Amino acid sequence: EIVMTQSPATLSVSPGQRATLSCRASQSVNSNLAWYQQKPGQAPRLLIYGASTRATGIPARFSGSGSGTEFTLTISSLQSEDFAVYYCQQYNYYYTFGQGTKLEIK
Amino acid sequence: QVQLVESGGGLVKPGGSLRLSCAASGFTFSDYYMSWIRQAPGKGLEWVSYISSSGTSIYYADSVKGRFTISRDDAKNSVYLQMNSLRAEDTAVYYCARGQSRSLGWFDPWGQGTLVTVSS
Question: Which of the residues A95, A96, A99, A102 would you substitute to probe the B interface, choosing the one with the greatest number of B C-beta atoms within 10 Å?
Answer without folding.
Answer: A95
